[in-house]
Design goal:
Organism: Anaerovibrio slackiae
Number of strands: 12
CATH class of the largest domain: Alpha Beta
Helix content: 40-55%
Enzyme class: transferase
InterPro entries: CheY-like_superfamily, HATPase_C_sf, HATPase_dom, His_kinase_dom, HisK_dim/P_dom, HisK_dim/P_sf, Sig_transdc_His_kin-like_C, Sig_transdc_resp-reg_receiver
Radius of gyration: 23 Å
Catalytic activity: ATP + protein L-histidine = ADP + protein N-phospho-L-histidine
Order of helices and strands: HHHEHEEHEEHEEHEHEHEHEHEH
CATH topology of the largest domain: Heat Shock Protein 90
Protein name: histidine kinase
């Protein structure tokens, strides 16, 4: 077979060599050099946050100006979060922590959440943003939603970043194939930006490739974003590709296979989902950071929840023990807290012997994002592990699932 097909053999050898070369590039990334490489990119948005905070403080009586500053601060904070996500991914990769974590995902809700974020970014630049979700798609699937989000969010962010004012960005999800077990979906992000320079087209997915597009001086960040996207899509078993012409914009697409969540589909068919009424529900929130505590409390009370706070695990345990069973419908628990951490508090609640000790939902809400952190939360008896900073929509979905008894 090999002798009769030398062309095929050469192609396979070339593909294997290319795969090995890319793997070596990832393995040889020096974290210290990486941080130096990203220094300017980190300092610039940090300067924006500090400067805009001071400006807003000095004009606190000008509501419109304060809101303007807050929008800019939010954009800079999200940029920093994306950079941090990239760095953490590299650290996990070096530590061998690259396993996918599948969970139930509603693709339509997922798509709409991404669209809302991108639409807000586009509005800031006076861009036209259009989103289309193929209604033939069965939305309830099992996948690593955080990884898929990381890929699509990066593509959308790039599209907005590299499209001049008054341009256009399109985001779509289209059903390609479906059977009783899986769906194949193509996500497309298209823009009318400046396009990708010809000399970058063959290396755009390699780590530490800076994204200078067209003849502009628009800077593309750490040089890790698209490389990480490509690696994540490969791990998800999909494909990532693009077309681009200088001056005519770019079109990136991701094709992924998703396993249908048959259990969720069965529940949906038996009892159509209804929005949970949060009114009358009681949450115990354990958080030692006063600002984080205030933010989460406001988000929850905005949805009708009553929130009682505890500044550490010991106080949370005391409040749980002093109140009657089923006083609280949910416990949100930070992990790293003084006096008693969230893991120990969760274990003691589960072992307390109260009638609701084994059934009350406990969710970790922490900056600890590694695989072993999630495992420790589960071993301590928690039902879910949310990684800070938690997007409001993600928090609300998790709370709804907890109150629905779906954790």
């Amino acid at each position: 077979m090999e002798d009769r097909n030398p062309k095929v053999k050469n192609q396979l050898n070339t593909a294997a060599d290319e795969k090995k070369r890319i793997e070596e590039l990832w393995q040889n990334i020096d974290c210290r050099k990486l941080l130096a490489h990203m220094s300017h990119d980190l300092r610039s948005p940090l300067s924006n946050v500090l400067g805009l905070t001071e400006l807003a403080r000095n004009k606190s009586d000008d509501r419109e100006y304060v809101e303007y500053c807050l929008e800019k601060i939010d954009a800079s904070a999200h940029f920093l979060m994306d950079m941090l996500t990239d760095v953490l991914y590299i650290i996990r990769l070096e530590a061998g922590e690259n396993n996918l974590r599948k969970s139930s995902v509603d693709l339509k809700e997922f798509f709409n959440s991404l669209s809302d974020t991108a639409r807000a970014m586009a509005y800031e630049k006076r861009l036209n943003f259009f989103a289309h979700f193929d209604e033939q798609i069965v939305p309830l699937v099992r996948t690593d939603g955080s990884r898929v989000r990381q890929v699509l969010q990066n593509l959308l962010s790039n599209a907005v970043k590299f499209t001049p004012r008054f341009g256009r960005v399109d985001f779509s999800a289209k059903l390609l194939e479906a059977d009783n077990d899986r769906v194949r979906i193509r996500f497309t992000v298209k823009d009318t930006g400046v396009g990708i320079a010809d000399e970058l087209k063959d290396i755009i997915f390699l780590p530490l490739t800076k994204e200078y597009r067209g003849s502009t001086n628009v800077y593309g960040g750490s040089g890790l974003g698209l490389a990480i996207c490509k690696q994540l899509v490969d791990r998800l078993g999909g494909t990532l590709d693009f077309t681009s012409s200088k001056g005519d914009g770019s079109e990136f697409w991701v094709v992924l296979d998703f396993e249908l969540d048959k259990a969720a589909l069965q529940r949906q068919s038996e009892a159509p989902a209804q929005a949970v009424d949060f009114s009358g529900k009681y949450v115990l929130l354990a958080e030692d950071n006063h600002i984080n505590c205030e933010i989460v409390k406001r988000l929850l009370t905005r949805r009708g929840l009553t929130v009682e706070t505890a500044e550490n695990g010991q106080v949370a345990l005391n409040k749980y023990m002093m109140n009657a069973p089923r006083t609280y419908d949910l416990i949100l628990m930070d992990v790293r807290m003084p006096y008693m951490d969230g893991l120990k508090a969760a274990r003691m609640i589960r072992a307390s012997g109260k009638s609701d000790a084994k059934t009350i939902p406990i969710m970790a809400m922490t900056a600890n994002a590694y695989e072993e952190d999630i495992q420790q939360s589960m071993e301590a008896g928690m039902n879910a592990h949310l990684v800070k900073p938690v997007e409001p929509s993600e928090l609300y979905r998790a709370v709804q699932r907890a109150l629905n008894g779906e954790l």
